[in-house]
Amino acid sequence: MIDEARPDASPAIAPTPPAGAQAADPAADPRSGRQSAWRIFLRNPAGVAGLLILLIMAGLALAAPYVYAEGPLAMGAMPFIWPGEGLAYPLGTDALGRDVAAGVAWGARVTMLVGLSATFFGVSAGVIIGAVAGYFGGRADMMLSKLIEFFQTPPSFVLLMVVVAIAQPSVSSIILAIALVTWPTVARLVRAEFRSLREKDFVLAARSLGFGHARIIFGEILPNALPAIIVTASLLVAQSILMESALSFMSLGDPNLVTWGSMIGSGREHLFTAWFLSAVPGVAIVLTVLSLNLIGDGLNDALNPRSE
Amino acid sequence: MQGRLPDIARLIVRSAFHAVPTILVILVANFFLLRLAPGDAADVIAAESGFATDEMMEGLRSRFGLDLPILEQLQNYLGHILRFDLGYSARFNTPVIDLILQRVPGTLILMLSAMAISLMIGIAVGTFQATFAGRWPDRVIAVVTQLFYSLPGFWIGLMLIVFFAVRLRWLPTGGSGPIGVELSGLSGLLIRLKYMVLPATSLALFYVAVYARLTRASVIEAKAQDYVRTARAKGLSQFKVMTGHVLRNALLPVTTLAGIHLGGLLGGAVVIETVYAWPGLGRLAYEAVMARDFSVLLGVLLLSSIVVIAVNLLVDVIQAFIDPRIELK
Asked: Out of A150, A242, A249, whose CB is closest to B22?
């Protein structure tokens, strides 16, 4: 998984994070360093397509308050206008005459917020727990591994439903609940990375220079585990978005917000007559999740060239 | 094989022992989650009956043992669990364990058929891709599987309903069978299958993508092995090399992953069941959320965890049978 050439190529006596140092000398290994990883990513058409779709979605989320200033709940048009029927409502209107396009744009904000923050918290917790377990080993590893196993046993969506239902649905409880069910994935990955990296020469060098544990974990090992973590994080954003939309589809979303999942849920009542009400927000979910998965694959090829 | 049977029995016993602490932790967590939930059993009953005085509430609390110290309550809870007593659902007017056990078969059937569909299609597609690795059929399918991988199950479920049930009228929109009709014999089975096609497919699509990608990578790796070159060199047909030598070895990681995914499948089934009104654990969980009946909800969490542990054990045993190299310590 990890680009092992980096630590080995730099002299073992100088345990500085090698990522930056190597970028200055791209001739030695053209695939190492952040700059060339970015170039490899840009050569992957699927990854670039994913990035473009994601940028459009992010633009939509940012533009929503300006383009649809009245918010997603404003009523004022005829109900059940089909997409393409009128230029004023390109994605149609729902049973109450609300603009579907406004809902999609405002929903993008919630989706992005939940996907990014849940991943941030999940990855942070997973990195800390996985790093401690993998770096120290022994009893700490045993106990933390049990904790990871325990969190991975119940079906994560059932656990998610239980936590959200008990904590009462709101954006913050949903974010934390998603982080609660996703951190074990990250922790397992980080633990495995740390277990193999802690045996490397550059860690030994850092230790012999008298670096503290925290500095070795965050300054020396973590930068080398980062490529794998970044790839997993991009896929986790996609998973978090899927979880959030499923929750709000099942009326376990924040009751005060319009989300893509809640739009599909309310459109379901008109599935036989106006199926576009469920179809349109679903396409938005698929595009966003697809873009993140494509980016994740592209990053994997760029950052872990040996994984294929 | 004969000599392995006692070993496998030992494997089962050891795994069962290994699962005990996990189940215990889940039970304790369950108890505290239930305590965190807004409203206790007395509140639920009071809400059902419409009114309650403070004295009545006190009476109810002491009858359910809700006024005892918390450790004593935990002890009582664990004691009840040992007697398979998960409490009584005031909302559904049934013991929780009965409610849940009624729904387990529905979910198991849905899960297992989805898993069978996704394994069969995923392995076939992945093998096909590996044969054409890097050429256009592989690339086109890779795009399709990437799309499958990104579909929310509940949404594709609704879209399949629109297309196959509303437009084409080929399949029913939901439920597990026609209402008020006694089903028996072959025709009854066929009718039941008709009700299963859409939910199982919606659940399977994501995993088709997972297994196709995994099989592709695994087959490409196995094809490069020396024993495959040997098999080819001794003049075996392409088909025989693929089935007898490549796939036999390439599929082991796929079956391991299939076991790991069971929890995910169960979670996915929750959403799919609400889309198709399929009578399983997931729909029960949804009904429990809607009725704010947390004892039922946590019962579903507990039982689905146990199902995951049991099926993982089953996968271990099956693997030990398939692959004699797996060590049984």
From this structure: A150
pLDDT (tens digit, 9 = 90+) per residue, A230-283? 888 988 999 999 999 999 998 888 888 888 988 888 878 887 777 787 888 888
Indicate which CATH number applies to the domain containing B209: 1.10.3720.10
CA A283, CA A264: separation in Å to the nearest integer? 10
For residue B119, being part of any structural domain is answered with: yes
In a domain, A81, yes or no: no
Please check whether residue A139 lies inside any domain of the structure. yes
The pTM for the full model equals: 0.83
Bridge partners of A93, per DSSP, are A99
Closest CA to A133 of A201, A212, A187, A182: A187
Token pair 């029913």 in the structure block, residue: B172
CA distance A236 to A213: 28
Paired strand residues for B263: none
Lowest mean pLDDT among A78-87, A164-173, B9-18, B76-85: A78-87
pLDDT of B280-302, one tens digit each?
A: 888 888 888 887 778 888 888 88
Residues of A with CB under 8 A from a CB of B: 46, 146, 149-150, 152-163, 165-166, 168, 238, 242, 245-246, 249-252, 261, 264, 268, 271-272, 275, 278-279, 282, 285-286, 289-290, 293-294, 297
Question: CA A99, CA A107: separation in Å to the nearest integer?
Answer: 12
- pLDDT of A16 above 50: no
Residue range(s) defining the domain that contains residue B269: 108-291
Would you give the end-to-end CA distance of chain B in angstroms? 16
Q: Evaluate if residue B145 carries a pLDDT over 60.
A: yes
What is the domain count for chain B? 1
Residue type, B186: L
Average pLDDT, chain B: 79
Report yes or no: B320 and B328 within 8 Å, Cβ to Cβ. yes
Q: Which amino acid does the sequence have at A71?
A: G
How far out from the chain centre does Cα B87 lie? 24
Mean pLDDT of A67-95: 70
Structural domain includes residue B259: yes
